[in-house]
Write a structure and sequence with these properties.
Blueprint: H1 2-15, H2 19-24, E1 46-52, H3 65-74, E2 76-82, H4 88-97, E3 105-107, H5 113-118, H6 126-132, H7 135-143, H8 146-156, E4 166-167, H9 173-176, E5 180-184, H10 185-190, H11 199-211, E6 223-226, H12 237-242, E7 259-262, E8 265-268, H13 273-287, H14 294-297, H15 300-307, E9 317-322, E10 344-346, E11 370-373, H16 380-389, H17 393-401, E12 408-410, E13 425-427, E14 457-458, H18 465-481, H19 497-523, H20 532-541, H21 544-559
Length: 561
């Protein structure tokens, strides 16, 4: 009912718009559509259907605050097609195969943007960017770094020279640096040890945590270092430790072969000698009981149960690899009864034997947030204008963070972030309700939110000392990791047709097999000396050389854009 009333209100507002007011609006070359940057976008009623995967804690997209907000702002009636998860891409494939009418705007969920663009299911947006982009250009020029602009440009074009999706930039510092290592500072103080800065120092700390009963309960129940079964993101103990030997790609921006680049030459991290030496160190921890099998098998929620314990129970984790305030693997029970978070401090990237001290940067924020206008859309120019409007800092922040003046506002002049950098936005609430609670304020999608490096966010003041410490420590860790990545990386590849066929044929097995062997090397099921050559042969037989040849072609082409 609320959705219907909002739609009727928007139509009434348009219908009631005085002719003189409509005449005063600067219009575009499209009948009924205003000029770029002018609101409302339409002076005549238009309905657009957005296809998206519903987020579990959004009460109702039809009655959502942002839905009403964007309808009133643009004059457009918004409808939704809710897609299934995890088979989102398959749903779109089936709709195309059945020759069904497609939704106007796909908010993600397309398996191959270039393929569907070249085959006519998606609208090429080159001319739209030239004629109708306003906030996209304004925000990119004002807030984007040169590297970010170059990355966004490289990620936007398919190999045929067309832009088939509206590509947003969301390189948020927190999202990019979720993989961190934390040490129990209470235990360090009790054992009169310093915070480790190298792998050798970490090893000494882990041995002491194992042998010297730092929780003081007289039991040998301490877990020296712990994470959970993850090969790419938060909780990946092995991956985090490998960063002290070489850059070990992972996360949303990584390709299947964990490709690395040096002097323009593409190779794979998983066949490097430094990779073997890193696994040798982790195997040493495993053999000595410092890293137990639980970190290689347990789920994220099991890790949380071990670290986020009641104050009445002894702490048992010494070093943890996690995302500090994730609802599934971090510290979200922050109060007098659950106070373990105060015992931990974040570590800077640890220096390995050769001085290497990388930190995984997820590389999120570009290709995985693409939106596309389908060929079924009767008003593609209007749809493009809506996507462009989401780049406006105020509209985009409302879309992502909630109600202006209630959940967020512009930061005061001179305000700084937790990383000590100039802030653009200030959060007015410490715990944004849409993180874990059911809410009906935002769509809770990252697609459509433009956030470059200079659009930094200042956290809200927090009266809860546990949450305040948790947030400050996490962002201190982010600051310690800025710049701890190689100058060259192969992120978010835009394959051509031939490269795509090679990457999809060989890539999944390369990733799966390398992950399996990584675990076997760590546990000692496979020997890093006796079985290493066999492993290299298997990787070669899986098509690694062909994959890297395609990756080299893709990287060279993208680097030249």
């Amino acid at each position: 009912m609320r959705k219907l009333l909002a739609a009727l209100l928007a139509l009434m507002m348009l219908a009631a718009m005085p002719m003189a007011m409509a005449d005063e609006l600067e219009m575009s070359d499209v009948p009924g559509m205003t000029a770029p940057g002018v609101f409302p976008i339409v002076t005549e009623p238009v309905t657009l259907t957005f296809a998206l995967v519903p987020q579990g804690n959004v009460e109702d997209y039809d009655t959502n605050y942002f839905t009403t907000y964007i309808e009133e702002k643009t004059g457009i009636n918004v409808e939704f097609l809710l897609l299934p998860a995890p088979d989102t891409a398959q749903k779109f494939d089936l709709m195309v195969a059945a020759n069904e009418k497609l939704p106007d705007i796909m908010m993600g969920g397309i398996s191959d943007i270039t393929y569907y663009g070249m085959s006519g299911q998606l609208v090429a947006l080159n001319d739209y960017f030239d004629k109708y982009a306003y906030y996209y250009n304004e925000v990119m020029e004002k807030y984007g770094t040169e590297d970010e602009k170059a990355t966004l440009k490289a990620q936007s074009y398919s190999y045929d020279g067309n832009i088939y999706a509206f590509n947003y930039a969301v390189p948020e510092l927190g999202n990019n640096h979720e993989n961190m290592i934390y040490v129990n500072k209470v235990w360090l103080e009790k054992l009169n040890m310093k915070t480790p800065t190298t792998l050798d120092e970490l090893y000494e700390v882990l041995v002491a945590f194992r042998d010297k009963d730092p929780n003081g309960n007289g039991l040998k129940d301490e877990i020296p270092i712990i994470g959970y079964n993850s090969f790419d993101r938060r909780g990946d103990v092995v991956g985090d430790l490998l960063q002290s030997f070489l850059y070990y790609p992972g996360g949303v921006g990584a390709d299947q072969a964990r490709t690395i680049v040096k002097d323009g030459v593409v190779s794979s991290a998983v066949v490097q000698e430094e990779y073997r030496e890193g696994l040798r160190f982790v195997n040493k921890l495993y053999k000595e009981g410092l890293l137990t099998e639980i970190s290689l098998t347990q789920k994220d929620t099991q890790l949380k149960a071990i670290i986020d314990r009641p104050a009445s129970e002894p702490t048992i984790a010494g070093v943890i690899c996690t995302h500090f305030f994730s609802g599934v693997c971090g510290f979200t029970n922050c109060n007098d009864e659950y106070n373990k978070v105060l015992e931990y401090e974040v570590l800077a990237p640890l220096a390995g034997p050769e001085g290497v001290a990388y930190a995984l940067e997820q590389g999120s924020g570009f290709s995985e947030y693409k939106l596309a206008i389908t060929s079924s859309c009767e008003h593609p120019e209007v749809a493009f204008r809506v996507l462009d409007a989401l780049c406006d800092p105020e509209i985009g922040s409302t879309y992502r963070f909630g109600i202006k003046g209630e959940h967020w506002d512009w930061a005061a002049e001179g305000a700084v972030t937790q990383e000590g950098q100039p802030a653009m936005i200030k959060f007015l609430v410490a715990e944004q309700p849409w993180h874990w609670e059911t809410q009906n304020i935002i769509w809770r999608l990252t697609q459509g939110f433009m956030s470059f490096s200079d659009m930094k966010q200042q956290r809200a003041d927090e009266s809860n000392p546990y949450i305040k410490y948790r947030n400050e420590e996490f962002y201190r860790g982010v600051a310690l990791r800025l710049g701890a990545i190689p100058a060259e990386r192969f992120l978010n590849p835009i394959w051509n047709e031939e490269e795509y066929e090679i990457a999809t044929e060989y890539g999944p097995m390369i990733r799966e097999t390398s992950n399996e062997w990584r675990t076997m090397f760590v546990t000692g099921e496979k020997d890093l000396d006796a079985d290493w050559d066999e492993y290299l042969t298997i990787m070669e037989n899986l098509g690694l050389s062909e994959y890297l040849e395609a990756a080299q072609s893709c990287y060279t082409r993208m680097a030249g854009n």
